[in-house]
Fold each of these.
Amino acid sequence: MTTADERRRIGALLQTERRRRRWSKPEMARRLAPHVPDQCPDRETLISYIKRWEAGKVSISERYQFAYAAALGTDIEELFGQKTAAGPAPLAAVDVLRLPHSNGRPADMEYVETLRETNQALVRLDALHGAGDVLPLAARVFRTANHKLATGAYVAKVERDLMAAAGETGEIAAWLAYDADNQAASRQVIHEALELSRAAGDRDMELFELGHLAMQSLHLHRPAEALRIADRALAGELPARVSALFEIRRGRALAQLGDESSALSAFAKAKNALSESISPRDPQWAWWVDETELTRHKAMAHAQLGQWNRTVPLREQVVLACRGEYLYGKLDLAQLLESLMQVRDWTRAEEVITDIAGIADAIAPGRTANLLRRIFAQIGRTEGVPSTVSDAAAYMRGVLETTTSEAAPR
């Protein structure tokens, strides 16, 4: 029988391998099903198993171990044996990271291939360590590749491939800067990445970058800008998942502009688009555009409209759906706490603060930490807050200052 620590180690590894391939949990279930011997459970049951396995709540029986190995195309011993090191590896020890050469040699096809491998490694490192730790490395890789393009230090025949790979690197670096709440850097890099992807004719990555730019415009409260980006994208023929993404961006922008009716109409269009199955036309990156993402942004829209009572149940849904997820789990909890504070549900707010306290050491500097600081400070200024809640908020402010200052780069 496996120990709790071993279950968590294996769960973290399975989650990392799934995310490295950019598969959602439903996609993981779809790929597992053909390899499960005897009778495979239905799709929803299999997804629930995947959630519990990745959270380390239950052991994985041998029949599913073999299915995982087959679906991931790896050796069963590498996944479930003792050869895999426990826990996330330090940055320097991650063997998938082989940086492109920066020794003055002209970029060739080997450089391009290594750059693409590095892009995948950066995504994996983000899942393991968070944006703040990985951002300096991603920025350096992007600047090096972009400098080669700007100075002509490349073999002519690889120009388009190099631009496409560098555009992808820029998107990753821009996301990391966004999540680390370095918005100026993110905005600069995403514009540079967008130019490269357009020049390379990489329409899929260009759409991803436009989606990022619209997202950041909303974060910076520039709704008219976000709306123009979304409308221009939707003017063309888009795959269903991409169309859903830009309808979500439209809905958020219209909510910020105070147009509730049009915002809800945009979200309804997004929901309709999401009802279609993922098709070969959908870009590889579109796997995360799903019902949970739609619910997350509907909640943000209602919050921006001041409709906090409608926000709370939506954010409860998201937290439940993303329990144990690295990418959004912490931020979703923080946003739920914000909503509970606004409706003065102090009993539930205290429960959420307790949940946040349990993961405080994993909250790095960035968007989540900054939002929590604002929430805890506001709780401290609000009259009529039960002492247990105000004391917990004050305590967590101190904990957060300690953990995020220790995690900050020196």
Amino acid sequence: MNQLKKVAAVGGAVCLMASWPLVVGQIAERVFKDNIANIGNQLISAKVLNYDRGYLSSHVKTEIQVTDPGIKAQMQYEGLPTSWILNSDLQHSLFAIHAITQLDGQANQPIKIVTQTQLNGNTHFEVDSQVTHYQGSTWSMTFTPMSLSGDVTTLGEIDYKLDVPSVQFSNPDLQIQVSNFYGNGQGKKEKGFWIGSQTLQADKIAMSDRLGVDDFTLENAGYQNTSSMDADRTRYDTRQQFNIAKITAKDGVIEHLNVIFSMGQLDVDSLTKIAAILEHYADITPADAQNLQQAFDRLISKGFSIALEQLDIGLAPGQIESKVDLKLPEDTQETPQDPLEVVKKLTGNVESQVPKAVTEAFPVLRQGVNELVSMKMMRENGDVYQMNATVQDGNLVFASGKKVPLMAILMSAMMQM
């Protein structure tokens, strides 16, 4: 009997090993089709045209299409394709599915995607390309060999790295050259918006026009984004940071530019409804518009904070600095929001500082600062001009005691945009 059990066990193991590639193949097909189904959004759609599953390998043909009417029409006008066929060759290994994907009919051409998917659905990907050139009716764009790699989990979490050594864009009026563009990110899309962090950086961005009049260069230009939810997943915070080490133009040099902008305590449910409606912005119905207004009203009634944490402009004579911090309290009644009443509820402060040496170097700026000083909205303090004001009862109240309606300032700013 024991000998029979051993023979049965060995036989069972052999049968399992023999059938395992088929099991892996079935898992691969399910994972592949699920992933393709998740690609579709307002801009593009994807579908599997053919899935030829074999014993040790499979071949898949997939179509990606641009669905946004405006983008599709523009691409057609430029003579660019609006759909692509992808061929994927899958290998069923013992614990993973390996795939190589390339454009149909372009096996020797620029882009190759290599993925390794575990049986639990987690995937590692590597995308590499050769020199890639796109030609429109009046423009062209060229990428040097670039790479994108990372990992995606079944929970939607992604960790990626991007490296693009050079990008060149040109049309009859403008040329742009981007050198050493790279980035990385970690996080996931949840309820319609990004949770995590991202960093993008370019060593140099050079722009020149046809006449050479408005040429300028950005050096070490970077962008960082961090977004998160609270423990209850009811409030959302986001922080955007822009840094440029140097800006060079024909009329002068900015030695650095640093901007940090943040919004906090935003209502997650309201943002989710807004994101869901805006996903099909091209065909919003009157009911959608009403729901969108209600979602915005709820977002405002729940209260939030908004801040320009830092605005530093470095010039040769000195550095201009500004900060703005505003808070809107929660309205427990959740009534429709009147813009005038909302402005009256805002609290916060505004700070700004301009060195006298900077105003002396720039006559236009000196004129503006002199006007603010005469109106008691700015004051001299040693070798700088300073603005300090608080926001209360719908007014901007300056250190001098002068009050200016905040709505008037906001309307004036909108008129200048």
